[in-house]
Amino acid sequence: MTGVLDGIRILDFSQEVLGPWSTALLADMGADVDKVERREGEYGRRGGPSYITVLNRGKRSITLDLKHPKAIDVVRKLVARSDVVVSNWVPGVMDRLGLGYDDLVKIKPDLIYATGSTFGSEGPWAQKPGRDTLGQAVGGLMSVTGPPDGHPFPAGAIVADSTSGLALAAAILAALLHRERTGEGQKVEVSLYGTVICMQPWEITKRSFEPQTVMRRAGRNHAFALRGVWGAFKTADGYLCMAGCHDEEWPTLCRVLGIEDHQNDPAIATAELRNQNEEAIWSVLEPAFVRKSTREWLKALEAERMLAAAVQTYDEILNDEQARINGYIRTLEHPDEGQVKIVGHPIKMSKTPPAPRGPAPEIGQHTEETLLELGYDWAEIEQLRDDGAI
Length: 390
Hints:
6-stranded parallel beta sheet, Rossmann fold, formyl-coa transferase, domain 3, 3-stranded antiparallel beta sheet, single chain
């Protein structure tokens, strides 16, 4: 089955997570992605087979030494046939290589030039290098994550990088639509800083509207709202997550948990009181939840349409029917590991469903093939190799 981006060619200079994740998602949607790597491979390959497989699936690998003039000549030919160029180097690096937006649009006027950075391309922080955790830190997410009276914590996953990859993919898709309508290419960009801020639209805006709001690290709750019947509770065999309890639901929750004696407790009888007095509500809920298994509680709570879910481990997700049926976990044939499970695409499309187009390439696997496509003959390819350009 064809993908929605069939015929779109992407030239990918990105590394590690932000850029490679965006282009992997676009490859799933049918785009042809030519990945340019250093001769020793891009930095992210140090993450091992799992990194390579999930973030570079369905791409072609070309090795080039971008400090070599002949390699830059190859890049220019690649740009001429590409629709999109992607990088996530520190702003200014591509310009110094002669591969900035202004350089490449001279070759391909309708080019879409997509970049990702840590802090954004302008301002006093623009030239600073960074990574996921720094984006979480400056973007405020870390300030509200962790124990209320302890250190701020980063999230347990690289959420700034991966979410920025989603944002960059969305930016590229929007730019492709604009080009389809107008014939114009453009430069698009995202940053970890901007994406992390965007991940907290209500929280940061509420602080703007209501400066008197008490901000604190969320602990097992939310930073300033939806506290009490919120977050994870230990069960007999794991953890169960609750997502709030309105006043009209409180009697039902008390009945299901067998805590009817607390239904009219003056400390926790209303949602406002439960949000204010989380220690009091926990002292009631925690002894109740540990009496049964997560599965037993889910059956009882879901029968009453209460908002509850299991706190799943990665192993449980990898074997979860719901994740498999929806394509959130996919299987892929790995040349060395055999059939492996990987994170799939978050979008479903009825006519052109995204799916991995094949395994990840070996370093430079498609260099010669690509050069032949560009018009180089074997003698010229050998000379490029002898010169150290490829």
